């Protein structure tokens, strides 16, 4: 099987599908037409074993190989962002205030390209390929919904990848180890006693207590955390007070934690700090803590090797890139509850061609020449995993 040649063959199809999906972005949990379009595209190429999810706008489809074997999955997310597009592309978003600014239009196109390739060579495959079309990645709920509905039940490994605006065009990163941090969200409510600004001693100032809590929380990062474990604790919003000349009764803060550590260590330490500091001021504090995603860590040696060798087989060692570990998050990590996984990145940055903007920006665009590479590596990984595990 010559997967590289097939990727070249289907490049026009991949690019055309990318352009189409870019024109009609839908936000998280609104991907009704996007999911329906993906189903039509898969059905049109002869992939008919398709199951639509009942609890979210996602689906799975299976390409059945000609020989018995294991099942490998390939995943694409499909949701867009509430961003007003300013690319000036002829196929720019037609849905006002919505844009595929994170590149999920490219993910869909690459998954469809990989499906085309694998469906053509299915008689040679030693096992099955499951295509996972996932909604709501941007709000970190889609993968977990898919997992709960059985999207990866019976899957022996899953591959996911993200196009990335800071990696050089055409390079493919499948680096082992820490790749993307977890995403935790928290809300802190500090309650005091309001008073007139001229007589603050008659009340308990929730603002000054909150200010001390914000400062003290950084001790969780600098003094309570192992310095070898990356950890970011950020307060993103703060709200409190009704009048300029009164101390407020209540302050509410929201923020995020990013780390690669597992367990409740950060939450426990935050709760300890928040409660103690508020008590010192005579105030009360409550912490609500949510675990939105797990960290993405490429820890499976076999999958790391198969993915790396797939890139080299197709595009040589010069095609292998390396993106430093980032503290951004991806809900792809939830698939790790059910199966082994590996996650890669595909570079889309080319300053000479003008592709200089990064993901989530209103002018983000990609070098479409890389899309066939992304599709080819997906297909090669799937074929190689099935061949190796069938032995």
In short:
By secondary structure, the chain is α/β, with parallel strands linked by helices. It is built from 9 helices and 16 strands.
| H-E string | HHHEEEHEHEEEEEHEEEHEEHEEH
Strand order of the largest sheet: 1-2-4-3-5-16-6-15
CATH class of the largest domain: Alpha Beta
Secondary-structure-derived class: alpha/beta
Rounded Rg = 24 Å
CATH topology of the largest domain: Aminopeptidase
The oligomeric state is single chain
How would you name the CATH homologous superfamily of the largest domain?
Answer: Zn peptidases
Shape: elongated
Mean pLDDT: 97
The tally of domains stands at: 2
Residue stretches low in confidence (pLDDT < 50, at least 5 long) are none
Instruction: State the share of residues found in helices, binned by percent.
Output: 25-40%
Count of DSSP H/I helices: 9
What does this structure look like?
With 391 residues, the protein is an alpha/beta fold. The protein has 2 domains: 3-181 and 294-389, Aminopeptidase, CATH 3.40.630.10; 183-293, 2-Layer Sandwich (Alpha-Beta Plaits). The chain has helices at 3-9, 11-23, 32-44, 104-120, 142-148, 206-222, 265-280, 301-315, 371-389, and strands spanning 49-52, 59-64, 67-77, 126-134, 157-168, 172-173, 177-180, 183-191, 195-196, 231-240, 246-247, 250-259, 284-293, 296-298, 320-321, 340-349. An 8-stranded mixed beta sheet has the order 1-2-4-3-5-16-6-15, sandwiched between helices. Strands 10-12-8-13 form a 4-stranded antiparallel beta sheet, with helices on one face.
How do the helices and strands line up, and which of them pair or pack?
Layout lengths: L2 H7 L1 H13 L8 H13 L4 E4 L6 E6 L2 E11 L26 H17 L5 E9 L7 H7 L8 E12 L3 E2 L3 E4 L2 E9 L3 E2 L9 H17 L8 E10 L5 E2 L2 E10 L5 H16 L3 E10 L2 E3 L2 H15 L4 E2 L18 E10 L21 H19 L2
Parallel strand pairs: 3-4, 3-5, 5-16, 6-15
Antiparallel strand pairs: 1-2, 2-4, 6-16, 7-14, 8-12, 8-13, 9-11, 10-12
């Amino acid at each position: 099987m010559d997967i590289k040649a097939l990727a070249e063959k289907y490049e026009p199809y991949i690019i055309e599908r990318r352009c189409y999906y870019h024109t009609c972005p839908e936000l998280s949990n609104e991907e009704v037409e996007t999911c329906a379009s993906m189903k039509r595209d898969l059905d049109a190429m002869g992939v008919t074993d398709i199951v639509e999810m009942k609890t979210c706008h996602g689906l799975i489809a299976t390409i059945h190989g000609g020989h018995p074997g294991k099942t490998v999955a390939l995943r694409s997310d499909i949701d867009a962002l509430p961003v007003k597009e300013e690319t000036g592309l002829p196929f720019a978003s037609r849905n006002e205030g919505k844009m595929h600014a994170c590149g999920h239009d490219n993910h869909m196109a690459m998954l469809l390209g990989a499906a085309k390739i694998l469906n053509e060579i299915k008689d040679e495959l030693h096992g099955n390929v499951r295509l996972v079309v996932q909604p709501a990645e941007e709000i970190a709920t889609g993968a977990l919904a898919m997992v709960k509905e059985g999207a990866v039940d019976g899957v022996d490994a899953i591959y996911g990848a993200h196009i990335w605006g800071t990696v050089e065009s055409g390079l493919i990163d499948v680096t082992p180890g820490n790749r993307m941090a977890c995403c935790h969200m928290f809300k802190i409510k500090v309650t005091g006693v309001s008073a007139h600004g001229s007589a603050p001693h008659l009340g308990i100032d929730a603002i000054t207590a909150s200010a001390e809590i914000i400062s003290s929380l950084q001790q969780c990062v600098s003094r309570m955390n192992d310095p070898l474990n990356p950890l970011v604790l950020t307060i993103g919003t703060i709200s409190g007070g009704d009048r300029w000349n009164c101390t407020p009764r209540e302050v509410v803060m929201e923020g995020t934690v990013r780390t690669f550590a597992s367990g409740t260590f950060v939450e426990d330490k935050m709760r300890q700090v928040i409660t103690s500091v508020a008590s010192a001021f005579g105030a009360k504090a409550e912490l609500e803590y949510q675990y939105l995603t797990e960290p993405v860590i490429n820890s499976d040696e076999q999958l790391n090797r198969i993915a790396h060798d797939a890139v080299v087989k197709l595009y040589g060692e010069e095609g292998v890139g390396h993106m430093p570990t980032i503290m951004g998050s991806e809900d792809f990590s939830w698939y790790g509850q059910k199966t082994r996984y590996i996650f890669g990145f595909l570079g889309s940055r080319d300053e000479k061609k003008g592709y200089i903007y990064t993901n989530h920006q209103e002018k983000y665009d990609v070098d479409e020449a890389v899309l066939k590479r992304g599709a080819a590596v997906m297909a090669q990984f799937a074929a190689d995993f099935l061949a190796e595990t069938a032995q």
